[in-house]
Write a structure and sequence with these properties.
Length: 327
């Protein structure tokens, strides 16, 4: 079976369900965005939302995708950096429980945290304290980390350290891996559009983006126009449209994938799990149409729970549904 390596910010998600978007206004957080914050801001947000309570799980975009693949039985690895603290132990233990081959370097700062503020309509706004995750650097990486894998999946958040991202992409490319990137957040794409286009054209085979990220990347509004512009720079372009499904462009052919009917309560990790489903189909050499449908199935289940983690019973149901799809 083909193997996939992920690299991302190693974060512990702290999930908070809001009863009003007024909290976002008070905290000056753009609804639906990802904003980098410091430790003091994390404490301020937790203080202002204390009456709402919270839950936690290991997270980070690429880690969510790799976890989903591992649970489905794929051979996976993950590169990241955590603090020497209880949150770092929590993250590593969770990943290894799914038989993921982890390479987690230890940083000086605390393990990173992502406060996921969930609006009543299930939209999520993220305030992220990167902590030790941001200490991952190009000097940590070696060519050997990338050997033995067939795919490399990285999150666009690493655009904040271009030396790290360039080195990872270069190592993966030289090792002959197919490279995938998820654009991750529209505001980050807006600030780094030219650089994103440069690395996608030079290195990337598979590009994931949601509607807002695709518009920021291409400066187009029409879905098809966005997809076609993305496809000019890579082999496979994937436009995630939430409840409206997704569009996939490969070899000049567009595949329209319908969403699976659901009642969303939290969109946290839905795009990451869609990517896991798509990759699961890809590494098992299913058709692009089937890959998209498996992605939609995982995305549908992800929005039915709070956070990006699902229980064993739900995963067993997912595996049953996948068997039906491929047969």
């Amino acid at each position: 079976m083909k193997k996939i390596l992920g690299m991302g910010n190693s974060l512990v998600d702290i999930l908070i369900k809001l009863d009003s978007d007024k909290y976002l206004d008070d905290l000056k957080l753009g609804r639906g965005s990802m904003t980098l914050v410091d430790k003091e801001s994390v404490n301020e947000i937790l203080k202002k939302t204390a009456s709402l309570g919270y839950s936690k799980s290991s997270g980070g975009s690429a880690a969510n995708t790799i976890n989903g693949l591992a649970i489905l039985g794929s051979n996976t690895g993950f590169i990241g950096k955590v603090g020497d603290d209880e949150y770092g132990i929590f993250f590593d233990t969770d990943m290894k429980s799914n038989k993921i081959n982890t390479t987690l370097f230890k940083g000086e700062e605390e393990t990173g945290k992502c406060l996921v503020l969930i609006s009543e309509d299930s939209e999520r706004t993220m305030a992220t304290y990167l902590g030790a995750a941001i200490e991952l650097s190009g000097t940590d990486l070696t060519e050997n980390l990338f050997k033995g894998y067939d795919y490399f999946h990285v999150e666009g958040y690493f655009v904040q350290d271009r030396n790290l991202l360039n080195k990872a992409l270069d190592f993966a490319h030289k090792a002959g891996l197919k490279i995938s990137i998820d654009l991750s957040s529209y505001n980050i794409v807006q600030e780094n559009r030219a650089y994103f286009k440069e690395i996608v054209e030079k290195y990337v085979d598979i590009l994931f983006a949601n509607e807002e990220e695709a518009e920021a990347f291409t400066e187009e509004k029409d879905h098809k126009a966005c997809l076609m512009e993305m496809g000019k720079l890579c082999q496979t372009a994937i436009l995630k449209l939430g409840k409206d499904g997704s569009m996939i462009l490969e070899d000049d052919k567009i595949y329209n994938i319908k969403s699976v009917k659901t009642k969303a309560i939290d969109t946290t990790g839905a795009g990451d799990l869609f990517a896991a489903g798509f990759f699961y189909g890809l590494i098992n050499e299913y058709s692009i149409d089937t890959c998209g449908k498996i992605g939609a199935l995982l995305g549908k289940n992800a929005v039915e729970v709070v956070g990006a983690r699902m229980d064993d019973k739900r995963w067993e149901n997912i595996k049953t549904e996948i068997s039906k799809l491929i047969n």
